[in-house]
Design goal:
This protein is of the alpha+beta class. The protein folds into three domains: 44-229, Alpha-Beta Complex (Adenine-n6-DNA-methyltransferase TaqI, Chain A, domain 2); 329-516, Adenine-n6-DNA-methyltransferase TaqI, Chain A, domain 2, CATH 3.90.220; 577-684, Orthogonal Bundle (Arc Repressor Mutant, subunit A). The chain has 23 helices and 25 strands. Strand 19 (437-441) and strand 20 form a beta hairpin. Helix 11 runs antiparallel to helix 18 (518-560).
């Protein structure tokens, strides 16, 4: 039984990435497919319940309690997205519920003690009620929908937010929510869980109208299909779903607690590293981190924190030991000053004003002996292409914009170009050369990367090209310094703007960064490269773990559903997926392996048409039959046996498409059937 397998694997599945939410979806999928609790043959079938609902609606119409509704279209076999257990029935939501019939009330008639429900009061996905406000707290200004205790309340606005509750008292709600209930004695809790099932959410999302505020229209909702089990089974399903959802809540709370504990341990370990005062402290703290590496860094966020800590230690002089024999940074800066003076004499750069002395309150920490704080204007030439972005062309010379400058690397996407003429007119303030640092001044602020292109490039606005006056070997260290939390903090202190922070070149020139001796810079860069490589391995391992978890979830879902994956028919009109589309993806296998077997016609292949029942075009019907047969044949493997549901679910086939395709294959002798009706099995005749 699916329930037994689910319980056996529950904890394991919950530990996969996003596992608890996937479990919730799986529970609801099994529930609405009749696989969560056993059926009882002695129970009154749903067809009898539907007869009583029909009688109840007729009585309500006679009594004037509801309006007579226009009959909804009969459900065709090809609309049914999956096979139902015996005793179940497919219905349209509008035939068995009061969807769209709720009473409206003007704001002046709402009493102060009335519950006023808004969409924002319900948590997305979980549907937890976050707050309950009454009219005296929240005065309505528009017409509301009236609901009663026990009603299902469905959020039709942005249905992907999955907001569905059962009202525990009378009240009113925004008209972006629909109060409804089942006719006769239909279990409202079963309706609620159905509206939260993956298939219905998918149907609702595909049926919305409106771009900025997509909502499910009333008629579309009423046309949606809902599976109805016998009434007693509805109650058992609701009880089981409630039980399993409670278990999910407990697992989720447990995981959140573990996550918080892990975050505290991670923060404590990295903070101890950052605050180490002596070499012995650093060694001891690093040893603790190293010995618990795989336990401490188990999420992408924790690995990112490790990267930040590495860079912070690097610019604080705590990542590698100092060597007293190294030439101090002051000598390096003196050589840079001499180089700047030479360039001024040669007329290559303008003479700058003397740089202001760096005050203690401008820097966030003390430096080791031999290090120096320096203003960016003291070591970099600023090439600033502020102003308008040059006109772009389809091809030509590559244009690098702020969107291309990522933190630590240059991304060539999105690709943009300018003409040769524009390049020559635009790039007059200086050309970037290999080893320069590109810095974004806003949107985003303070992203940096090394320029490592051999080709010519143009620079757009919001990028400053930082070119070292001397000692080009400093570039990689300076890149890491810019990326470090302390220097990022200094830059942001100089930024201006309310919503989008930015920094002007004049203010950036005054920003200070720490400079170690050139020999120590080399050691720092080597150590950072090594540790960042380790972070890369950690992230790759986490990605692999996530992929393994998703495979595990898929395997268990397949085992639970007896080899059947969730249907993508999604309770909608089948024109969304046609057999032609499936065949077009699998046709090459047929051509390669069995050219004499039925193949899709080229015309259908190039212009797929939706599957329709009762076509008046024999050639079209024949083409569709060939397409379906081709898809089925490509899916089946030699030596394997399949049920009808196995193939229909895998290939997203309607009942009529299946009947047409399998009949074609059996008539030509490609497929053999054993057994009848529900016991039927299909296999290839020539393995």
């Amino acid at each position: 039984m699916a329930e037994d397998i689910l319980f056996e694997q529950f904890d394991l599945l919950a530990d996969t990435p996003g596992g608890v939410q996937k479990l919730r979806e799986l529970i609801l999928q099994l529930a609405v497919q009749g696989k969560l609790v056993p059926q009882k043959p002695e129970e009154e079938p749903a067809s009898v319940l539907l007869d009583r609902i029909k009688e109840e609606k007729e009585r309500l119409v006679r009594e004037g309690k509801i309006k007579k509704q226009k009959p909804l279209p009969e459900i065709k076999p090809e609309e049914e997205p999956f096979e139902l257990p015996a005793g179940w029935e497919w219905v349209r939501i509008g035939d068995v519920t009061s969807y769209g019939m709720s009473e409206k009330i003007a704001p002046e008639f709402i009493s102060d003690e009335m519950w006023v429900l808004e969409l924002e009061d319900i948590e997305k996905v979980t549907s937890r009620l976050l707050k309950k406000r009454y009219c005296y707290e929240r005065k309505p200004k528009s017409t509301k929908a009236v609901f009663h205790r026990g009603n299902v309340i469905y959020g039709k606005l942005r249905p992907y937010l999955d907001k569905v509750i059962i009202a525990d008292e009378n009240g009113v709600c925004t008209t972006e929510m629909i109060p409804l209930e089942g006719f006769e004695i239909l279990d409202n809790n079963f309706i609620r869980w159905f509206l939260k099932s993956p298939d219905f959410i998918s149907y609702a999302n595909d049926s919305t109208h409106g771009m900025n505020l997509p909502r499910l229209g009333t008629e579309k909702a009423r046309l949606g299909l809902m599976p109805i089990p016998p009434l007693s089974e509805q109650h058992r399903i609701v009880a089981k779903v409630d039980q399993l959802m409670t278990l999910c809540d407990e697992l989720e709370a447990k995981k959140e607690k573990q996550k918080a504990t892990h975050a505290r341990l991670n923060k404590s370990a990295l903070q101890a590293l950052r605050e180490s005062r002596t070499n012995d402290e650093m060694a001891a703290n690093w040893a603790r981190v190293k010995n618990n590496f795989r336990q401490l860094f188990t999420t992408p966020e924790s690995v990112q924190e490790l990267r930040s800590t590495i860079l912070q230690l690097a610019v604080q002089g705590k990542l590698v030991p100092q060597n007293p024999e190294d030439e101090p940074a002051s000598a390096l800066l003196e050589r840079i000053r001499e180089e700047k003076q030479r360039l001024v004499k040669e007329g290559k750069i303008k003479k700058q004003k003397p740089l202001p002395e760096i005050k203690p309150d401008e820097v966030p920490f003390e430096l080791p002996e031999g290090w120096e704080w320096v203003r960016l204007n003291g070591i970099f030439r600023f090439i600033d292409y502020r102003g308008k972005t040059p006109p772009k062309t389809a091809n030509g010379i590559r244009l690098v914009t702020a969107k291309n400058v990522r933190m630590g690397y240059l991304d060539i996407n999105p690709e943009e170009f300018i003409s040769v003429e524009t390049y020559e007119q635009w790039m007059t303030r200086g050309l970037p050369i290999k080893g320069d640092i590109l810095f974004t001044t806003e949107a985003p602020l303070a992203n940096v990367c090394l320029f490592n292109f051999d080709e010519k490039i143009g620079l757009a606005q919001r990028i400053i090209n930082l070119q070292l006056f001397s000692c080009k070997d400093m570039a990689r260290y300076c890149l890491y310094a810019f990326m470090s939390p302390p220097v990022q903090w200094i830059i942001k202190q100089q930024a201006t703007g309310m919503t989008a922070k930015g920094i002007k070149a004049a203010r950036l020139k005054d920003v200070c960064i720490p400079i170690p001796p050139i020999q120590e810079q080399d050691r720092i860069v080597a150590k950072v490269d090594q540790l960042m490589g380790l972070c890369d391995e950690l992230e790759a391992s986490l990605s692999q773990s996530q992929a393994d978890g998703e495979r595990l979830m898929s395997a268990v879902v397949e085992e639970i559903s007896g080899g059947r994956q969730k249907s993508d028919a999604k309770l909608r009109n089948p024109t969304k997926q046609s057999p032609d589309e499936v065949a077009s993806n699998t046709n090459h296998r047929i051509v390669d392996t069995a050219p004499t077997k039925p193949q899709p016609a080229n015309s259908a292949h190039s212009n797929p048409e939706p599957s329709t029942a009762g076509s008046n075009n024999p050639e079209s019907d024949k083409s569709k039959a060939n397409n379906t047969a081709a898809a089925i044949l490509a899916y089946m493997q030699p030596g394997e046996q399949y049920t009808r549901s196995d193939i229909m679910d895998a290939l997203r086939l309607s009942v009529s498409a299946w009947n047409t395709g399998i009949r074609e294959l059996k008539e030509h002798g490609y497929v053999v059937q054993t057994g009848q009706k529900r016991g039927a099995r299909y296999k290839l005749s020539n393995p």
